[in-house]
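pasting for the record
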Amino acid sequence: LKTSILEGSVELTTLGVLGSTAMLVVSLLCFLGNFLSLSPVRALLMVYCFLGAIVMLLLEGIHQRPGHGMFAKVAAVRIILYQELHFFTTLTGRAVGYAFFGSLMLANSRSWLGAAVGAYLLFVAVAMIFVGVRSSAKLNSLGEGMSESEVIAKFDAHDTDHDGKLARAELTNLCAELGTTLSARELEAALHLLDADQSGTVDKTEFLAWWSGKSWQRSLLSRPGASLPVSAADDVIQMT
C-alpha cells in the first residue's frame, strides 16, 4: 500500500478530481433521495457535500493556467479561493477537506454508492497527507552543508532553458543532484509546497526561500505575484 501511494502513476490531483466529481454526482442523487423520503437533515448535509465538491474541484485546478471567457472567470474564482482559503490549497488542507466530506458521505448517504465515494475520499485524504509529509521531509534535507551560492549555481545549471524557473523535469534533476530522489507523487507535492505564485514552475526565489528555511511561507506568500499582503501571509503561517 505504501509503495502504491508513493509511486502510483495517477497524480494526486487527478485522484482528487475523480473523488470530487463522484461526490458532486452522488451527493446530488442522495439529496434527491433524502428530500423525497422527507429526511431534511440528511438532505442538507448532501447540499454541503455538493457545494464542497465544487470548491474542491476549483482547488484542484489552482495550478492550471487561466484561459479565456468562462475559463477566465473560473480562474478568477480560483484566485479568490487561494487568497481566502489558502490552507486548503495545500496538500494537508485538501486532505482535511476530503476527510471531512468523506466522513459526511459515509455517515449520511444511506447508500452503498455514497459509502463507496466516502471511503474513496478518505483514501485520497490519507494518500495526500502521507505523500505530503514524505515530500516535505525530503525537501528539508536538500543541499545540507551547501552554501547559498552553491545552491544557486546548481539551480542555474539545471535551468536548461534559462528562464529563471524550474519545470517538473528540471526540479527532479536538481533535487537528485542535491541528494534527494522524488517519486512522481512526491514531486507533485513538492510543486504544491514551493510554487507560491501558482505558475506551475518553481523560480529561484521560491526555491531559495524553502532551502533557507527563513520564514519561507511569509516570503513566498507575500512576494509580488502571490496576491497576499504581509498580514495575510502571517495569518496563513499561523494556520499551517
